[in-house]
Fold Protein artemis.
Amino acid sequence: QKEDVEVTLLPAGHCPGSVMFLFEGGNGTVLYTGDFRLAKGEAARMELLHSGTRVKDIQSVYLDTTFCDPKFYHIPSREECLHGILELVRSWTLLSPYHVVWLNCKAAYGYEYLFINLSEELGIKVHVNKLDMFRNMPEILYHVTTDRHTQIHACRHPRDDDCFRGNRLPCGMTCQKGTPLRIISIKPSTMWFGERIK
């Protein structure tokens, strides 16, 4: 038996290009989320989830997300996280030009908002290994660099943690103009919030 099904892709907010799927057919409407990160009120602004002035009737929602677990009861908003990271990076980098921050980002994508906001607020470009993966995201290209002589790094190495223990950035830098670098590591990961009681 044939049936027409309309499939709509909705932004998931997880990383660039991530989507949720809305399936609409004669037997009802289904939303498949995958991993998503939506701020409060964001779904209300998605016109494709609405029919006229009301939300579409959705019979089933498939929540396929890492954080659908009671231990992740409270995950701070991106704004809260950004504010905390921004204050830490600002206070550290102001100490001297040799005080450097390494953003230990485990995934290749999904941190663009962080790089852009840190760069805009502090006027410091973020060092990355290659610019290739950002070519289709021109809005970030001004905020990242392959020049290692910057105070914020998001460079990667297969054994990142080994590098940091040796007071060396993954790109190999240990000093600048003969002065040893003072490096702090920030691991921006939602996983940390599952390890806390509150």
The first strand starts at residue 5 and ends at 11. The chain is about 20% helix and 25% strand. The chain has two domains: 5-66, 78-186. Helices lie at 78-93, 112-122, 138-141, 160-165.
